[in-house]
């Protein structure tokens, strides 16, 4: 696909019960250098009109509030409302490093798309970091987490209603870029906490990942990138193995957080998918 000239970067934020984190994230994004070249598109998914909770700023774009439509639908509403030439998704409880906006925009002015340096943090302490200077399918799957990408708006049609829809989007962006993306040297920080999606829903992941394998062809069509079907099957199968191991751990009386379990076991064999 041809290159898209950079004009504006749209941050797509799906927000559900995010008032503890969202104001700080908005303030940080809008307060950084090059923030005149961004917009923040907010898709409330808990029925709250965020215009009543956040400062008025022309760089904030508010989608009409919705209620419990799910992260994929909320991200898609933000995508539809975005006016930027390029987009990047964010979760409302995540964070970024100082200089993040400038680093991403500077990179997008010389290359069509980039991956973000994902760092998982808990209580302010780093848990794991994506280390590679480039993102490829193998390194994405080995990381066993989300590695968010900033890419042209027309590289994705929507965010599909599926588990790990953020990873599906990254795989689509990778495919559009020819299988490899440079990683920006600025941190995108994923906060791990008891109210996160993974912490609350990990017991349902095995069936959801299996559904992803069955629906991989449809999902690829939904995002507008039919060439990624095999990559999606590979991704979901790799996650089924880990999820089944976590299920067995819980059934055996184990206690603990899903992310802790993954961190302890991702470099060791788990049961096959």
UniProtKB/TrEMBL annotation:
Pfam families: Glycos_transf_2. The keyword Cell inner membrane applies. GO terms for molecular function: glycosyltransferase activity. Residues 10-132 form the Glycosyltransferase 2-like domain. InterPro entries: Glyco_trans_2-like (IPR001173), Nucleotide-diphossugar_trans (IPR029044). It is an enzyme of class 2 (transferase). The keyword Glycosyltransferase applies. Its EC number is 2.4.-.-. SUPFAM superfamilies: Nucleotide-diphospho-sugar transferases. Keywords: Cell inner membrane, Cell membrane, Glycosyltransferase, Membrane, Plasmid, Transferase. It comes from the Bacteria. This is Glycosyltransferase. It comes from Pseudomonas aeruginosa. The lineage of its organism: Bacteria, Pseudomonadati, Pseudomonadota, Gammaproteobacteria, Pseudomonadales.
């Amino acid at each position: 696909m041809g290159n898209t000239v950079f004009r504006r970067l749209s941050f797509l934020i799906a927000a559900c019960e995010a008032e503890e984190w969202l104001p700080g994230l908005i303030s940080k994004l809008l307060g950084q250098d090059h923030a005149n070249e961004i917009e923040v598109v907010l898709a409330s998914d808990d029925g709250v009109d965020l215009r009543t909770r956040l400062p008025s700023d022309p760089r904030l774009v508010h989608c009409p509030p919705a209620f419990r439509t799910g992260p994929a639908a909320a991200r898609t509403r933000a995508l539809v409302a975005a006016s930027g030439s390029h987009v990047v998704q964010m979760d409302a409880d995540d964070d970024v490093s100082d200089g993040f906006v400038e680093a991403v925009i500077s990179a997008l002015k010389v290359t069509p798309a980039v991956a973000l340096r994902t760092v998982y943090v808990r209580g302010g302490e780093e848990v794991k970091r994506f280390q590679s200077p480039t993102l490829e399918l193998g390194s994405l799957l080995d990381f066993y987490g989300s590695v968010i990408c900033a890419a042209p708006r027309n590289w994705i049609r929507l965010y599909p209603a599926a588990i790990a829809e953020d990873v599906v989007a990254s795989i689509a962006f990778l495919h559009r870029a020819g299988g490899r993306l440079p990683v920006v040297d600025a941190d995108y920080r994923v906060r791990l906490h008891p109210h996160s999606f993974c912490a609350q829903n990990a017991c349902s992941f095995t069936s959801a990942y299996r559904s992803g394998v069955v629906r991989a062809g449809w999902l690829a069509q939904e995002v507008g990138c039919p060439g990624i079907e095999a990559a999606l099957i590979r991704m979901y199968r790799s996650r089924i193995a880990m999820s089944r191991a976590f299920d067995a751990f819980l059934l055996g009386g184990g206690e603990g957080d899903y992310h802790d379990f993954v961190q302890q076991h991702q470099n060791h064999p788990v049961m096959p998918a």
